[in-house]
Amino acid sequence: MFPSMRLALPTIALIITFLSSCSKNENFSDYEDNIENPSSKTTLASSETHNEIETELFNMINNHRSSIGLNEMEFESTTYYYAGLHTEYMIEKGNTSHAKFGERAENISKRTGAVFVAENVAKDYDTITDAFEAWLDSPGHRKNLEGNFDYSAISIKRNSNGDLYFTQVFFR
Question: Which stretches are annotated as coiled coil (predicted)?
């Protein structure tokens, strides 16, 4: 791929994200790029820092994937870091968004060797089951939940009012 095209892909992904209308059932995004220097990828690592509801939703999604014959995704800590940053950003802004998704995807790609990155975001759900069911009911979210991914992480945080905000990032 030409270097100028490689730089343009994250910009194009952001433009598409900004031009698309997102409700709580339509917040998904993806990013694809080939890594030209695979020797630059780092070792994947797990983390025990995720909280109980994040683990519960992650397991719920993997159970769903298994039930339809898909592989279970492995929790990945670099992705968790970027998902957490984005969840905090959404809380600060008070809404869901894919702002700076191209930048997030590029950083994950550089650090893990990912060739395809996608994300689901949500808020305004009282429980993780409500969010999971809404993601399954949304074609774009379902595509990510059931996509060809090996790694993922979910960040779930509450704002000062106790409202849940969700960011799940996937990659292969």
Answer: none
Three-state DSSP class for 44?
coil
Largest Cα–Cα distance of the chain, in whole Å? 47
Query: What secondary structure letter does DSSP report for 93?
Result: H
pLDDT digits (tens, 9 = 90+) for 14-71: 333 332 323 333 345 554 443 333 333 333 344 446 799 999 999 999 999 999 999 9
Domains and CATH numbers, the chain: 72-171 (3.40.33.10)
Helix/strand/coil (H/E/C) assignment for every residue in 48-81:
CCCCHHHHHHHHHHHHHHHHCCCCCCEECHHHHH
Q: List CB contacts of 95: < 8 A, sequence separation 6 or more.
A: 123
pTM: 0.75
